[in-house]
Design a protein that fits this description.
Pfam families: dUTPase. The protein contains 2 helices and 12 strands. It is mostly beta strands. The longest helix is centred in the middle third of the chain and has 7 residues. Bound molecules: deoxyuridine-5'-triphosphate and magnesium ion.
Length: 171
């Protein structure tokens, strides 16, 4: 069963900008465009305006996510992914893009789609300080404690899925 959409007030700060839109009915993210053209050299970043600002309902936030096609084709990432738009923020939504391609300059034209906005309900928590936390199966294990992380020395990691080769190439 399809749930009813949540109503969100939106204001255009650029009169010509298309409103954020979902590409398909089941999509999680509504595409945001840039209102400014920009060229990004390899390694360069920019804060691009989207021409829209929101009044999200209390208890919601919007998250600015990268677009996978732009990442795969052009190497464009969001520096702060996902960017967090607070319910109380009334300013224009901005997108902090970076060109991670080592060679190619990326060109954004006005109204190119540069990111996608995912609106979600978020919990507000109250923190209760304690001397000891209750136990758990994971306990303090983190950062690769389940194995499957990269090896740098060429040794058989068994459960590996990546390895860093640049150190060995220099030897
Ligand atoms: O990709 C983003 C991320 C944030 N924002 C806006 C909305 C958000 O509510 C505000 C602040 O973002 P954040 O809290 O991530 O930044 P901060 O550096 O902690 O700033 P502040 O001290 O204003 O909270 O900036 C954007 O327009 N785009
Ligand atoms: Mg903040």
């Amino acid at each position: 069963m399809t749930r009813n959409p949540v109503d969100v007030l939106i204001r255009r700060t650029d009169p010509e900008v298309p409103l954020p839109s979902y590409g398909h009915p089941g999509d999680a993210g509504a595409d945001l465009v840039t209102t400014e053209a920009a060229d990004l050299a390899p390694g360069e970043r920019a804060v691009l305006p989207t021409g829209v600002s929101l009044a999200l309902p209390d208890g919601y936030a919007a998250f600015v996510h990268p677009r996978s096609g732009l990442a795969a084709r052009c190497g464009v990432a969001l520096v702060n992914a996902p960017g967090t738009v607070d319910a109380g923020y009334r300013g224009e939504i901005k997108v902090i893009v970076v060109n991670l391609d080592p060679r190619e300059t990326v060109r954004f034209e006005r109204f190119d789609r540069i990111a996608q906005l995912v609106v979600q309900q978020v919990e507000k928590v109250r923190f209760h300080e304690v001397a000891e936390l209750p136990g758990s199966a994971r306990a303090e294990g983190g950062f690769g404690s389940t194995g499957g992380h990269a090896a740098v020395d060429g040794s058989q990691g068994g459960n590996r899925y990546a390895s860093v080769v640049s150190d060995r190439e220099g030897q």
